[in-house]
Amino acid sequence: MQILPLRLPRIERRGVLRGALEGALRGAGGLRPGDILAVTSKVVSFDEGRVVGLAHLRPTKRALALARKARVDPAFARLVLDESDLVLGAVPGAIVCLKDGHLIANAGADQSNAPPGFAVVWPKDPWGSAERIRRWAAARAGGPVGVLITDSHCEPLRLGTSGVALACAGFLPVEDVRGRQDLFGHTMRITFRAVADGLASAAVLKMGEVDESTPAAIVRDSGVPTFARRLSPKQRAQASIAPDRDLFAPAYKAALLRAARRR
Fold first, then answer.
1. Which residue ranges make up each domain of the chain?
2. Residue 133 and residue 215 in contact, taking contact as beta carbons nearer than 8 Å
3. At 187, is the secondary structure helix, strand, or coil?
4. Are 98 and 80 in contact, with CB atoms under 8 Å apart?
């Protein structure tokens, strides 16, 4: 598998991402059928105008309390509350949230690589964004390609961040390998391969997360089948699991109960 980072000019306004990708892809020799184009959620958000000024956000009492626990700007805490599906708690530096099927810091809101006084939030519909980019990219590749919208997250009890897929298009996000056998003939009973997340982690490792200016990459020869159709709602839903069925549910069950009572 090859990962070819794409250097882009700074994306700071709406409607310029495709033009920037066009030039970068041309410089890399173009897309080929079967390639997967990975793009960070941040540049997609800039392109879609998902940048929020903090000066106009009035913190609520709950935002003030979370800001004290997390040691963040109260206006930023208010933004996190607005963006999250459920807040589980706070630690110094972050508010822990559920957002669109992800256990994620700050509901995906981020002030890194954003203008002072602003924060970038996730695309409003990452799956729709991925599908629109897929159609555009497939026309340039002359055949089916995949698209990944990536972000960073933290694994429980592990130091550092790795890549995660917010959404994908043109390939299945998860492969069900239940029923297959391992080297010793044991039948797999619960195993699913997180294809989109695995590709996102590899792509983010090469794209970087600081000042590399490579917020996109071509993933080539991955062996993942790509196709020229829209993912169904059922196929999209495979990428997430309900909180009460999650492997780590015992660790945050109490927080879920407290949040449910507040509702």
1. 2-48+125-231
2. no
3. strand
4. no
